[in-house]
Amino acid sequence: MKINERYIKISGRFPIERDLNYENDVSVILKAGTVKREEKNNQDGTVDVIYTVKPIELSVSKENAEENFNEKGFDEAMQRDQS
To answer: How many distinct structural domains can be found in the chain?
Structure first.
């Protein structure tokens, strides 16, 4: 069958060390392991594929937390994204 859409479903939770700014958007960088792949039949000859992932590492942007949980890793990732 032809794939129509692909989705990532994030499952589980990850401990954090600092408070977040409540009711604000949160920017995160997530390293996760894929634990499940499922296909949802759309009844039109196509399927949607849903990948379920569980967190391994997590970084939160400085704007969204009192402190970044993994400042070096977040800054390096942001520099890669901007280049």
So the answer is: 1
- Taking Cα atoms as reference points, which of 50, 7, 5, 14 lies closest to residue 32? 14
Q: Give the Cα separation of 52 and 65 in Å (integer).
A: 26
Range of the domain at 6: 2-82
- Is this model's pTM higher than 0.90 or not? no
Burial track 38-53 (b if 16+ CB lie within 10 A, e otherwise): eeeeeeeeebeeeebb
Q: Which residues contact 15 (CB under 8 A, 6 or more apart)?
A: none
Q: What is the pLDDT of residues 55-69, one digit of tens each?
A: 888 887 766 554 444
